[in-house]
Amino acid sequence: MHMSRDTSPLARDAHLIRWILALIAIIIVGTVFFGGYSGLQRLFGVSGAAPQASTAPADLTGALVLSVGMTSASTGQSVMAPLLIWAATGARESIQADQLGSGPAIAFQYSISRDSNSAVFLATPIIGTGADMHTAQETPSIYRADTSAVTDSSSLTAALQAAASVADPTSTDYFREFPVIAPSTAILYSSLPRSAYLQSSTTLGSLDADAWNIDMLDPSGAKTTVATGLYPKWVDATHFAFLKDDGIYVHDLASGSDTKVWNLTRPATATMGFDVSDDGQFAAVTDPADGSVQVIRALNWPGGILSTFATLPITATNPVLSPDDHYLAMVALQPGGSDPESPLIPTLEYYSLTTQQFLPQSLVFDPTTTTAIYLTDWR
User: How many whole angstroms separate alpha carbon 33 and alpha carbon 80?
Assistant: First the structure.
């Protein structure tokens, strides 16, 4: 399903790239909130979200963690809002986490540790009121939250609102993306220095992976640049996998060495996506430019023992693997019609690693109001 379209490839690809760049270059200047939290509920229709088909597998559980940028058709105002989607029912729930302490904020790219005790995300506070409302800084800080006492969406909201900034922008890591946190609370993220960001702020998606640094914050807050690349993902306590220009690599924290474990057919950029399952047994790489998703089985990351599990003919971004390794979720970019200029339709799709089939249920986002989607975790 979702095979590549055969109408006007050049126009199609240009439209695809424009949409994907919206996922990468979130420049947080002058964003206006859409009527506060009641406005978010109206915007997402969360109060009356209908359950998905009753044929959903019994083990399709947990919540997918998203940040969705949307524009009001009536006012033209926009918001980047946190959202949970319950896998079993498809119900959408806006979590009121776009507030830090007593004030509003733009917050996105939430990721939760495998033991669920900590969360990390990007955010920048909003200051001022009315027409004077603006962001406190040009690029977001990294925030860390204690989620050890979370039992429901309300306590998750409270934990995220109480999060503390652990890394403000500096000249060397001015623009940050894709933070992830380990059970030890060590944080990894990709970054660009200020000079590189200013030169490429409108074309971040086309930068090769090796143009980015991978930085680590240890539990004490000490920061170190440990590699170059994109999408660092913990595979165990002392190794993380990531994308470099020519493949997937594994970094050994003890030795400081990088080992290539998988070849990529195209140079890696931020328009691609990468995820590793909680137990490290699976990985997924999305490449919207060639309309494919690679699912990889990993027997031993440091030893480079990996094999192809499946190649999916689907144009998608933002892969996330379920905590039990049974499913892969992704944001598919569906054709909006025969006209190559028709807006692409972002759709949340599920693929079963057990049956190696796509599930019949999916969730469709309105392409006329959705400006960006970050699907960043599944808990």
Answer: 8
